[in-house]
Amino acid sequence: MKLDIVIIGLGGVGSILLGRLSRFLNFSRDIEAKINLIDGDNYEVKNYERQEFGQIGNKADIKELESITRYTNIKFESFPVFINETNLNEMIKEDSIIFMCVDNHKTRMLVSNYCRNLKNVTLISGGNEFTDGNVQIYIRKDSKDLTPDLCKYHPEIANPDDKLPEEMSCEELAQSDPQLYFTNLGVATLMCWAFYNTVIKQDYERSEIYFDILSMNTNSKVRVVN
Amino acid sequence: MAQKKFTREELDAKRVVDLKEMCVYELDIPGMTKKRKEVVIDAIMAKYGEASTAKTSAISTKAEPIKGVEFSGHSILSKPEMPFGKRTSTTIQVSCGASSGNFPVAGRSVKEVGEFLREVLNVDRLSTGLVNGKEVDPDYLLKPGDNLEFLKPAGKKG
User: Fold this and answer.
1) What is residue B52's DSSP assignment?
2) Alpha helices (H) along A4-138
3) B98-to-A156, A175, B118 alpha-carbon distances in Å
4) What is the tens place of the pLDDT at every residue in A149-203?
């Protein structure tokens, strides 16, 4: 099985996900994987409590360097940019498996809408608040939606009230709500579950999973596409 | 050998768990255990619907003494003052995000249930209700076997 994987966002969720996913793929005999790493942001000391990096610098570049020596059976390529309307078609191709680990709904909306015009794509998108979060699974095969796109049941994504990272000022970028490492870990884990169920097991029934650390619950949802 | 036939209304009034058991144990319709209610009903209607002429040997009208009954379902003691046998109510699974529970809300509207369970399930005032995965009118009356979800906004950070 040949997998073209794209990870958009390598912050609290993406940096954890990359390690877990790479370990699985690197030692799976039947899988030949390439992972494109996309993030225009830099790793800084303030990120150290939640994000897994060994040095300061662009997150995509650092993760490529760290990963190529650790997971030699996978091809890695870094793209130190933020996703926007003009570079979407260069970053996301047909048959891609996309893991979206971003921190704004506008990027989620852009990528989901772009995927609606592709024939075959798997989009797994995660997000969290302080102690809870969710993962959405958008599967499109032969130009037909098998699960709802990210916007269908989420008006907050369809009509985002936030901005793309490159539209934000330095002050806006510097301000960020506190996040819990365990919540990022929960999202990354559920994204791995979603990958295993959809890509490896080809089960497309569930399209969203929620979790809540305080109540210690997870709950997956089956939703109608049209 | 007589043939059992169903109407859609008759099937719709049953709980999804009962329909699935019918498929497995009585109607010989495989692959329904993880399907949604409407899919199960469509499968039964295709084989045993009123308009269907397909013959079956799975259902017999020959009267035989009942030797045993196995039943599983959700019910709660909601009417303790009623006579024995009438004290429980069939419940509906209601969820919002990661929270869920079974509540005796059959016959209630989605809007009423949202108000009633606002604090229990942390339902937002503007949250949309989905029944069996599909958006419904807030005045939709819940039926036994329905699954109600109140949409919770997606997490933003990552």
Assistant:
1) -
2) 14-26, 59-70, 88-91, 105-115
3) 18, 28, 14
4) 999 999 999 999 998 998 988 777 777 789 999 999 999 999 999 999 999 999 9
State how far the Cα of A219 lies from the Cα of A192, in Å rounded to an integer. 16
Q: Which amino acid is at A220?
A: S
- Whether the CB-CB separation of A38 and A93 falls below 8 Å is answered with no
Distances (CA, A) of B90 to A90, B87, B106, B144: 54, 10, 7, 7
pLDDT, averaged per 10 consecutive residues of chain B (158 residues), comes to: 76 86 83 84 88 45 55 59 71 96 95 95 93 96 95 96
CB A223 within 8 A of CB A207: yes
**Cα–Cα distance, B137 to B141 (Å, whole number):** 9
Name every chain A residue with its beta carbon within 8 A of the beta carbon of B95: 219, 221
* ipTM summary value: 0.93
- What whole-number distance in Å separates Cα of residue B93 and Cα of residue B148? 6
Nearest to B151 by CA among A136, A139, A216: A136
User: Which residues lie closer than 8 Å to B47 by C-beta, 6 or more apart?
Assistant: B27, B29, B54, B56
Q: Is A134 in the B-facing interface, judged by CB distances under 8 Å? A: yes
- Closest residue to A210, CB basis, from B97, B132, B158: B97
User: If you ran DSSP here, which 8-state letter would residue A46 be given?
Assistant: G
pTM: 0.78
Measure the CA–CA gap between B14 and B50, rounded to whole angstroms. 17
Are A110 and A82 in contact by the 8 Å Cβ rule? The answer is no
CA B95 to CA B148: how far, in whole Å?
6
Q: For B133, which of A156, A177, A224 is closest by C-beta distance?
A: A224
Tell me if residue B145 falls in helix, strand or coil.
Answer: coil
| Torsion angles phi and psi, residue A103, rounded to 5 | -120, 25
Give per-residue pLDDT as tens, B11-42: 988 888 888 888 887 888 888 887 888 888 98
Provide the residue type at A155 as one letter.
Answer: P
Contact B47, B29 (CB under 8 A): yes
Nearest to B156 by CA among A149, A207, A105: A105
